[in-house]
Structure formats: C-alpha cells, structure tokens
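Incident log entry.

Two folding requests arrived from the same account within the same minute. Monitoring flagged them as a possible duplicate submission, but the sequences differ. Recording both here for audit purposes.

Request one:
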Amino acid sequence: MVGKQERTNMALQHPQTKPHTIEEFEQFISLPENADRRFELIDGEIVENVPTEEHGVIVSIISGEIYAFLKKNPIGRVAVEARYRNPEDRHNSRIPDVAFTSAERALPVTRNGAVPQMPDLAVEIKSPDDSVKLLRAKAAYYLANGARMVWVIFPELRLVEVYQPDADVLLLIDSELRQDTLDGAEVLPGFLLPLQDIFPA
C-alpha cells in the first residue's frame, strides 16, 4: 500500500491493496512533481521523508568526519542520502542518511537510479516523529541484505544503537557520566567519532 513514514506527517494519497513494485515506484518518483522530494519504497509502501534541520546537521557532521577520514585513508567512499536496493527485491528501495561502501565492494558510481547493493555501513538518524520500530526494522533490513554495520542515532536521547550481523546490539551513550565513541570497527578500521561531537548543542 501507499503510506507515510511517521517523520513526515504527510500521508500519500490513493492507497492500493497490493504492494508497489520497484518499477511502479521508479515511475512514481520520476514524475515532475516529485523531482525534489525524497521517497523510499519500504516493503511495497511508498514513504516520503522530510528531514528536520537537526537531522541535516547530524548528517553533515557524520558524513564530513567520514569523508575527512577517507581522504587520509582511501578505503572506500561515503554518500549522503543515496538510494540502495537489492536487485532481487522488487519491493524495497532504501535511502540511508549516510552510507559508506568499501573499496573492495564499490561499484562504478551510480548516476541514475539506485545502487544495486547495500552499503557496508548504513546510518539512520531519528527525527522527532520517526517510529523506533521502523528504524530498527530498517537496521535489520540493511544487515539482511549485505550491510556489515548500521548506526541508528537518537539525537533527543543522545545515544546510538550499533547493529552488526550475529552480534548483540551495542548501546552507546553521551551523558555527564558516560561519553562513548563511535568505532568503525572492521568496517571503517581506525575511524573514531565521540558522540559528543555528533549532537548539536
């Protein structure tokens, strides 16, 4: 069906009873009136995302830090709000807020449409109206389709959930009593980013 992600408070119209296919979705987003809008296809549902300023600031910080790291350590590339999909999945086309793909897995840069694979690292940042359940489901989807790590970031709580295949969720916190650091681990070896540097004052 066609619907909304809770971030937007904007429901799309004309629901249908069966899930949208990737072909229908790509036709929909190619319409002139949708040129400057941000849509995902999530399990056959067309979802519009309208990020907040806080969201944009955090995206800029994380992507900028990864870019600076990659300038010194050219082990892959970072992208902001690029589209990714599993070619065998006809009902999903996802846009992580930030994504890193290793040089070993990187395909030629995609000029049109979605990158036909998941990134190694996907980052999702919670906006005020986002559903926690949906964000965690996104993390599970990325991992199930080839991602090696997912960071789900909760600005209001100043914490990050780190997901990796076959591992328990790691909870990182920035507070007066505890100042944790994001670690790229085996995905971005050597990359460290204190949580206190991520969240706007």
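Request two (distinct sequence, not a duplicate):
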Amino acid sequence: MILPAIVLAAGVGSRLRPLTERFAKPLLPIDGRPVLALLLRELAEAGCVSVTLVTGYLAEQVERFAGDGSAFGLSLSTARQAGPHGSADAVVAARATPPYLVLGADTVFASGEIGRFLRAFEHSDAVGAIAVRRCANADPGRNGVGVIDGLVERVHATGSSFAGAPLWAVGAAVAAVIETLPGERPFELATAFQQAIDAGERVAAIEIEPTRDLTAPIDLLLENFLYLSSL
C-alpha cells in the first residue's frame, strides 16, 4: 500500500524561541541537516512519493526550501493553514483523499520506521493508526496513549507506558470524522481519533523506535553534538 502523506509544518515552535523568531522549526538541524529534509527523504524511501506540505508560520521560508519535492525524490504540493487552529484543521486544509499518512514536520524517525508503520497499518483491519513509543512515564496530560491488545483505547490516558508520536494513518472512517468536527478552533487529530474509537471503530497502536525531536533550545545542541564534534 502506497499512501499519500500530509506533512504538518505550520506551527510557530514557541518553545524553541528565540531560534524560531527567524527560522521555521522544521528547518532547524539535526545532525547538521534540516529536520524537514530528513523527514522528506525518509518518506521517499518508504514509497510515499506524493506529499502535501501544510505551512503557516514563515510559510514562504518552508515552501522555498521544499520546492516541488524533486530534490528529495517526491512530488510535493503545498497548502496553507489560515492560522494556528490545530492539527485536524491542517489536515482539512490539505484536501487529501483517504487513506493517507499524517506526520509532524519537526520529528526525525529512525531509518525505515515510516515504511514499517505503513506496512503494519496495511496488514491491520483498523480504520486508522497512531504511532506510539514505549516510555517509563508518559505525560498523561498530553500524549499518553492507552493501548490494549494492539489497539488504541484512549488517545489521552493516565499512567500509560506508551507516548504518542506525530505519525498517524487516516482511513475513510477517521477522515469522515475530521471533516465533520465542529467549527470550534483549534481542533486536533486526537479528537477525531477518539470520536472514531468511541463509535466502535478499531484504531491500531503501532509501536515505533524512539524518535528525535527539537523541543527546547538546548535540544539543538544535544541533537547536533556528535555531528559538531566530528567537524
């Protein structure tokens, strides 16, 4: 199964200020290369060669870097989100036909993990999937995911040993919920997935290897230390 992908690159990256006052968060480096470049190449390796890049904050900077995607082995189009109205709103802006993948533009996945996630979803009978990472203490207020027998029970769960990662597979049933979410903003993908689960739909929890993320300014040094040491 080869799915199109929606890459969410509209966020401000407020926790990375002052770095993001001049540079879009997806263009900050890990191992000396922009995070977005690493992600787009990984998508190409997974066979997801049709990509919609959703931009917002510093949109022209991000769009200029990505171009038409040919430098990364992709066919890339762009869509602009009108404001910081949440991840589900960004997906609506992309106007994609399900099934499709959705990814955050500020995370680097281990080599081959996007393709493995895609194959796991393909071989499930689920209407969608959420990538999860095993951790000692998931943050129950933000990204702890309740998992039972490989299925998501609660998108936000207290005391879970799994944390969510910004990688989702969206089938037609979940996409239909996204399209019908109320106009109150912001609205998030988590809301759509939970509504689908509450309606009796099966959403797979697919465990992936640890990811690399830039969350705070110190992460820029930590995630580039080995690269800088080798220069």
